[in-house]
Amino acid sequence: MQLTATPTSGTTDHDDGKDGDGYRGPATVTVDGVDHAVDLHVLGHFEPVDGRYHWYGRIAVHDGLDAALAGRTATVRVTTPVGSAEGELSDVDPWGRYRLAGTSTPPYPVGPYPVAAP
Hints:
Blueprint: E1 6-11, E2 19-31, E3 34-47, E4 52-59, H1 63-69, E5 74-80, E6 83-92, E7 98-103
Antiparallel strand pairs: 1-2, 2-3, 2-5, 3-4, 4-7, 5-6, 6-7
């Protein structure tokens, strides 16, 4: 199976009214020094309230990742073909996908944000 990366931009799949940037495609998640090749879908947006970029999403079911974590949370390194960032893996949904979140420069490029004129 060949995975392809798809940078996403614009309105998210959720009707939350926020515009965002995202990434869907192959990534490497490093847990406790061990790399796991995964399929990743993340979205993100700049949050003006705290002045930081928040990115979040899910990792497709991955037996090796599940064996390494057994459902526990972990700080991980996420690497895509275009970048790398630290994130947090947390809860596992009923379909076996880990939630991934980060507050930093994400592991994918983001679009320019308009700046209001003074």
